[in-house]
Amino acid sequence: MDILAIESSCDETAAAVIRDGREIISSVVATQIEEHKLYGGVVPEIASRRHCESIVGVVGEALEKAGKAAEEIDAIAVTYAPGLIGALLVGVNFAKGLAFSLNKPLIPVHHIRGHIAANYLAYPELAPPYICLVASGGHSHIVRVNGYTEFETVGRTVDDAAGEAFDKAARVMGFPYPGGVHIDSAAKRGDPTKYVLPHPKTANRYDFSFSGLKTAVINLVHNTNQKGGEIDFDSLAASFQYTVSDILTSKFVSAAEEYGYEKIALAGGVAANSGLRSMLEERAAKKGMTLYVPPISLCGDNAAMIGSQAYYEYLAGVRAGTALNAAATMKLDIPYTEKTNGAV
């Protein structure tokens, strides 16, 4: 089964053709990073406009690279939630029109479910049940993957997501947007023990809180500058990256142990961070756990992961019609139904 998938939840316009949920036939991503860099972060209105300008070309290129005419596609999939509402609406409405005109099934996909499914494209042997850490610019979740379409969130961020904290901390350190990659690079030159940063506590032991950590970095930089002191930004980056990685890894591995999982997976944009990857690999090995980590190309937003998850949603009977709407927020655990648009 060949699915044409569309992703437009933030600042990447992406399309891909995925076969049977496991094989990438084509994948195209048009990024807006250079433009948003001017503003130090994603500007939602600009993102929406660029999606409008790019989506026809991106979808056309994905079909061309797959050697497929639109009529030969078996189904259309699209990210419908969560994300920037204007950006989502571009993809959703384009997908609805395309599916209606071609008389093809339309499959709505939750963005975080897509991130988890990125691992299926890299590991043909991976199958539920397992537990997954999803860490990205807007999301930090620990998710029990009980089935391909059955999810249970056991921990999530109560304020800033990990990727958001990376970007905000990077800004005060003087690094350009997006900050995560620059902190990762600087951390390789720094001493991760030079600055002691807080590990914020949460009521639920598996929830995350990065707002206080981010604020601690901001205050450290401002206070040092006011006193005329000097900051070793490479070591501050290393200390920050180590602290975030330690928080994510410690809670995730503890959850895996408590719930009895030997298979664990990592997903999301922050999964590209070398510090997090290496720390999780080391601790998983010590616990005798098998770790699945997607390649860098599948960590950030892309349509291939949406097409992978769409296949399993399709097998579960998930379909949408022209009433499909975008949603800026949506719980991962809630299955999509046309009546509720996935909401409770």
Features:
344 residues; alpha/beta; 5-stranded mixed beta sheet; 43% helix; globular
Can you put this structure into words, describing what you see?
Helices cover 43% and strands 19% of the residues. It is built from 10 helices and 10 strands. It has helices at residues 33-37, 44-66, 85-102, 111-122, 162-172, 179-187, 211-226, 233-259, 274-286, 303-315, and strands at residues 2-7, 12-19, 23-31, 75-81, 106-110, 130-135, 140-147, 150-156, 263-267, 290-292. Helix 9 (274-286) links the parallel strand 9 and strand 10. The two termini are 31 Å apart.
Please provide a brief summary of the model.
This protein is α/β, with parallel strands linked by helices. Helix content is about 45%, strand content about 20%. Helix 5 (about 160-170) crosses helix 6 (about 180-185), helix 5 (about 160-170) packs parallel to helix 7 and helix 6 (about 180-185) crosses helix 8 (about 235-260).
Q: Main β-sheet, in a few words?
A: 5 strands, mixed
Task: Record the strand order, biggest sheet.
Answer: 3-2-1-4-5
Mean pLDDT: 95
* Overall SS class: alpha/beta
The first-to-last residue Cα distance is: 31 Å
Residues in helix, %: 40-55%
- Portion of residues in beta strands equals 15-25%
Give the topology string: H per helix, E per strand.
EEEHHEHEHEEEHHHHEHEH
Radius of gyration: 20 Å
Uncertain segments: none
Number of helices: 10
Shape: globular
Number of strands: 10
